[in-house]
Amino acid sequence: MNKSRKSIFSKKWLAILFGVLIILLFIPTPYYLNQPGSIEALASKVTVEDGTKSEKGSLNLTTVYSIKVNNPYIYLYGLVAPHTEIRKEEEVKGNLSDEEYNKLMLHMMATSKQNAIVASLHAAGKKVEFTYNGIFVAQVLDNSKAKSIIQVGDIIKKVDGKSFAKSEKLIAYLKEKQAGDIVHLEFLHGKEKKEADVEVIELDKRTGQVGIGIAPEDNMTIHPSVDVEINSENIGGPSAGFMFSLEVYNQIVKEDLTRGYKIAGTGTMDAEGNVGQIGGIKHKIVAAHKEDVDIFFYPRDITEYDTNEKEIKEQVKEEGYTDIKIVPVSTLQEAIDYLEKLPEKK
């Protein structure tokens, strides 16, 4: 083979290789990458009517940076990048479509903010009134007879002509049914009113529990005695609820809870002030440490299924973090009590 033919042959294979590399850019993979995100001061995100923002220190939420692995190159990056977790798409979204997942995240954030306002105002001795708007459909099980009828994000207004203010009351009503029974649903799909009959199914063979195969959540509007505005732009999910609560409370009361410390944390918050488990806690403590946080609050492990406390202690030990105080809490009041006992930072 002469030099000319060798040159043509080489260029041909280089062109093919280049083409393959370009094609790989557009081949999606069923994975997500999670990494330590940011620490964001809450004083700029939360505003309480007649409240004060004169904090000597700061209260901060923590985030996880999550991206969809849109091509194999991002996947390869995830294999070598520090503090990076590769997760299967089904572990992140379950059986939800992108649209359903986004609806769920928006609902969870809205609920998180409402719960934060309710819990913090109650802790500060303020009143909150509620208007219940039906039951939010957070998930539809694959074996549900309602699978082709209702979708994530729909609002159930009535079942068999009965209204249910809270999800546990709907669950209790359905528990009295038998598998094979038919219930009549009235629900909203967006702004469209719909009705349908749905068969009750067995959800757990061991316990005999029945239902219609959905994950129901409360859907309410709150009417606080003090106006509170929480700007959650670019933040999804419920894990900032606890820290939102602390910031709202700190702006209401006269005493500054921060005492000059840089405080961060994570955890869900319910309307009763309970702190719940979250995902990605290892990434959040890494992010907090990078930003020289003094104190980091996290959800205490209470049940045998809880893992946040175990995970964060393992991460702190593995990374050798000695200059950040990690504090487990199970309620908002527990965190308030801890901060009230702190000495002023020197």
Set out the fold topology:
Blueprint: H1 3-24, E1 31-41, E2 46-48, E3 58-68, H2 72-80, E4 85-88, H3 89-93, H4 98-123, E5 128-140, E6 155-159, H5 167-175, E7 182-189, E8 192-199, E9 201-204, E10 209-211, E11 214-224, E12 228-230, H6 241-252, E13 262-265, E14 268-269, E15 275-276, H7 281-290, E16 295-299, H8 308-319, E17 325-329, H9 332-340
Helix pairs in contact: 4-6, 7-8
Note down, in words, how this protein is organized.
It comes from Niallia circulans. The active site is at 239, 284. Belongs to the peptidase S16 family. With 346 residues, this protein is of the alpha+beta class. The chain folds into two domains: 36-71 and 112-127 and 228-340, Ribosomal Protein S5, domain 2 (2-Layer Sandwich); 129-221, PDZ domain (Pdz3 Domain, Roll), CATH 2.30.42.10. Helix content is 33%, strand content 29%. The chain has nine helices and 17 strands. The strands form five sheets. Strands 4-1-3-13-16-17 form a six-stranded mixed sheet, with helices on both faces.
Keywords summarizing the entry:
Ribosomal Protein S5, domain 2; 17 strands; serine-type endopeptidase activity; Lon_Prtase; 9 helices; flat; Pdz3 Domain
